[in-house]
Design goal:
mainly alpha, 3-stranded parallel sheet
């Protein structure tokens, strides 16, 4: 992995090693440094090119898990993509203490989603 990974928290670095990430994809190489620097990024690339990791890793790197309040909102056009991205964010962030990621979408019972939001979540994927 490149020096870009060294800018990530030790927990994220360990997770990437466990998941077998040895090389960044082109979209990750271009997006991650900008996002780590707090800049906005618009990226487009094909399915399977690593876009979720490209934005999720810097997002997780910036989260304050001790503060149980919404710090990120990720929007997707379909329920299926919403659930998929929420799973990926949880997978990348599994070493962050008490990380709460909530997928909010239609077709799911409203009350449990509202209750989770009231309790506090770090990342909402909708």
């Amino acid at each position: 992995m490149t020096s870009i990974a060294s800018r990530l928290s030790p927990g994220l670095q360990k997770t990437l090693a466990e998941l077998g990430y040895t090389q960044l994809t082109p979209v990750q190489e271009q997006a991650i440094p900008c996002l780590l620097d707090g800049r906005d990024v618009i990226a487009q690339s094909k399915t399977g090119s690593g876009k979720t990791a490209a934005f999720a890793l810097p997002l997780l790197n910036r989260l304050t898990s001790a503060s149980r309040r919404t710090q990120a909102l990720i929007l997707y056009p379909t329920q299926k993509l919403c659930a998929q991205v929420a799973r990926e964010v949880r997978k990348f962030g599994h070493r962050q203490a008490n990380l709460q990621v909530l997928a909010v979408s239609s077709g799911q019972p409203f009350r449990p989603q509202a209750h989770a939001l009231e309790k506090g979540v770090h990342v909402v994927v909708g």
